[in-house]
Design goal:
The chain has 147 residues and is an alpha+beta fold. Helices cover 20% and strands 31% of the residues. The chain has three helices and eight strands; from the N terminus they run H-E-E-H-E-E-E-E-H-E-E. The strands form two sheets. A four-stranded antiparallel β-sheet has the order 2-1-3-8, covered by helices on one side. The chain has a four-stranded antiparallel β-sheet with strand order 4-7-5-6, covered by helices on one side. A hairpin with a 2-residue loop joins strand 1 and strand 2. The model has no long low-confidence stretch (mean pLDDT 94).
Length: 147
């Protein structure tokens, strides 16, 4: 019932044999419910992530899914106290570009790494662009094998 009533940003991540296969999401709600956000972002993750070819039917048995429900982004006041294992980062430039990185990703140990990668994803030059940094937490739901 909560998924039909509540609104939130949602990211859907698809993995194939442990490797990223697609990830699309919204950091603020764009639909009437979390359920609608999940459906639309799941379709986008398998068909519109520009880094990957579209998912095809014969791959479906090999896919695992992760749904991250985001809290509302809050401005980061102190980068040194930002924990990339517990909080994601959203970077927004003065001209409207943005980049986002979910928390607790393999290989991301520092807030500086997380901010650098998020800025590259958003096409933001940290040396020249004015930016605002936001953090958020996620409620993560992962695919569990039932075999």
């Amino acid at each position: 019932e909560d998924m039909i009533i509540r609104r939130a940003g949602v990211f859907v991540t698809i993995f194939k044999n442990g490797d990223l296969r697609g990830c699309i999401g919204t950091y603020l709600p764009t639909r009437e419910s979390i359920a609608q956000e999940i459906i639309l972002n799941a379709v986008a993750a398998c068909s519109r992530d520009h880094r990957f070819d579209r998912v095809v039917e014969n791959e479906l048995a090999d896919l695992k899914y992760e749904v991250s429900i985001l809290t509302e982004p809050r401005k980061i006041k102190n980068v040194q106290t930002h924990d990339p294992k517990k909080k994601g980062v959203l970077i927004v430039s003065g001209d409207g570009k943005s980049g986002l990185l979910l928390p607790d990703l393999d290989g991301i140990e520092t807030s500086e790494q997380q901010i650098e990668i998020a800025s590259r994803k958003g096409g933001i030059d940290l040396l020249y662009d004015s930016v605002e940094l936001f953090s958020f937490e996620v409620e993560k739901h992962t695919h569990k094998d039932t075999d």
